[in-house]
Amino acid sequence: MIAQQLINGLVSGAVYALFALGFTLVFGVQKLLNLAHGGVFMAGAFIAYYAVVSGVPFWAAAILGTLGAGLISVLIEIVAFRPLRARGQAEFAAIVASIGVDLILVSIAQRVSDTKVLKFPFGTFPIEFYRFWGLRISLLQIMILAIVAVLLAALVFYLKKTTFGRQVRAVAINEKAAALLGVNAKAVYFQTFFISGALAGIAGVLIGLSFNSIQFLMGEPYMLRAFVVVVIGGLGSIPGAVFASLMLGVMQTLSVAYLPNGVSEMIIFALLFVVLLFWPNGLFGGAGLSAGVGRR
Amino acid sequence: MKLSVRGLAASYDGIKALRGVDIDVGDAEMVALIGANGAGKSTLLNSLSGFVRQRSGEIRFEGQDIGRLDPHAISRRGLLHVPEGRQMLSDMTVLENLQVGVLARGNRTSAWDERKVFDLFPVLEERKDLAAATLSGGQQQMLAIGRALMGGPRLLLLDEPSLGLSPLITDQVFEVLETLNREGLAILLVEQNAQRALAATSRAYVMERGTIVAQGPSAELASNASVIEHYLGG
Fold first, then answer.
1. How far is B226 from chain A (nearest CA, A)?
2. How many Cβ atoms sit within 10 Å of the Cβ of residue B179?
3. Buried b vs exposed e over A73-89: b needs ≥16 C-beta within 10 Å?
């Protein structure tokens, strides 16, 4: 049933969007690639898992995972990115530094989990299904769609309508002009890293719950897909990231359901190739243009 | 005294751009700083607004040492720098550019708002919903000044406001600056167009190779033989 596959695809695409938004936000503001984003995502899931097994209710554990991932992300900005920026040659160095940070996070998680796959205890989240028009959707899927929709709306509102959002966009466009007008760029970096990490953290919790599997390497495939998503959507573009995430989710689900095993990745990367060939700046502009975030 | 700079020396890209500069700007004074390209005028303004880290010397703004403050903190005290090249937030609208300007107000109160800026530059109101990048050079200069006014300036630093503007637009911009000064705003004006700058100001400094080589009432400098020879085209 193709409609059922579409729903499943949109749900997984929505989670890709959460992950990719944080990644593209940091790029849009700082013009730096944070390759530790997958590690932050994994850390969010780990924090929530250990909170649940030590008796914290799931909703509180999910919030802990989200905030914890946000704080880790801020820590990465302070320890790895800011010193590089001060020396003024951050672009390449930041890629290497963030790979290093990712290795640290992954190694800590490997040690903590003893290389095992962790599962939330049975009954952490109620397993309930709703049926309508012959389709089946779980309570978890509904919750995921709702969370993503709310967070996305909040992010867009924040960037477009609040004073702080204007500051973020000002720094993204022209850091010197922003500082001359009284914008504290350091505070803007702090907040964008926090938001970016928190979005990755909640994505980690939701993925850990959907597949009921949390392990230290879980960030890697998502990092790779986020790359595809932000390149197709246009680096730094928020609507681009959301559109490409949903498309990726749907395509993946459909090809897993109807095509031979293993074709799904082939299709995705072939698509990436075609997009780069004809739209080198992605479908929604992005890196090639002067500004990054919240432009449209 | 609004601004008082003593013995300011600074390097920029490894070159000694300032070698002991002393300047003052009085409370409601409009002062010009003229000099050839590369004399260090822009470096001086960038040192005052915190972008070039002070190497030695003293910068006092309203009596307080601001030499160690970050650029945004300096702006928030009301020392606002309208940079060379105008530095638009190009993808934001005219109105959004003005709204960002409000931040520099910090906890201070100011009589400036969008209304007053639009009264001063009516053309900005006509274009308020367009991206700043679509404005002409003259309109961008007006927006750069308007944006600084939104922050409630107590001293305005202007770097080459007439650069690339037609004589007619230059007249308009200078007229606005003189009006602002008459209303009590202190202004330090850096200009290549020395004739204009000397005509608009009451006092002026002449800069050469990183130091002040002449100073005095603008009218006197305008009739000084050496100044005429070097800066007013003989």
1. 36
2. 11
3. bbebbeebbeebbeeee
Q: In one letter, which amino acid is B45?
A: L
The separation between the first and the last C-alpha atoms of chain A, rounded to the nearest angstrom, is 36
Which residue stretches of B10-101 are H helix?
A: 41-48, 71-76, 94-101
The chain B residues in contact with chain A (CB within 8 A) are 49-51, 70-73, 75-76, 80-83, 87-92, 96, 99-106, 147-148, 151
- Report CB contact under 8 Å: B99, A163: yes
- Residues 10..69 of A with a Cβ closer than 8 Å to B: which? none
**pLDDT greater than 80 at residue A172:** yes
CB A65 within 8 A of CB A44: yes
What does the buried/exposed string (b/e) look like for B196-229 if buried means 16 or more CB atoms within 10 Å of the residue's CB?
bbbebbebbbbbeebbbebbeebeebbebeebee
CA separation, residue A123 to residues A113, A126, A161 (Å): 21, 6, 40
Q: What percent of chain B is modeled with pLDDT above 70?
A: 99
B46, B190 Cβ separation under 8 angstroms:
no
Q: With an 8 Å Cβ cutoff, are A170 and B87 in contact?
A: no
Q: How far is B169 from chain A (nearest CA, A)?
A: 23
Torsion of CA A272, A275, A277, A281, to 10 degrees: -110
Question: Is there a contact between A177 and B88 if contact means CB atoms under 8 Å apart?
Answer: yes
- Across residues A63-82, what is the average pLDDT? 95
Interface ipTM: 0.88
> Which chain A residues are within 8 Å of B76, Cβ to Cβ?
182
Integer Cα distance of A156 and A169 in angstroms = 12
- pTM metric for this prediction: 0.85
Beta-carbon separation of A180 and B90 below 8 A = no
Rg (chain A; Cα; Å): 19
Q: What is the dihedral of CA A178, A180, A186, A187, to 10 degrees?
A: -70
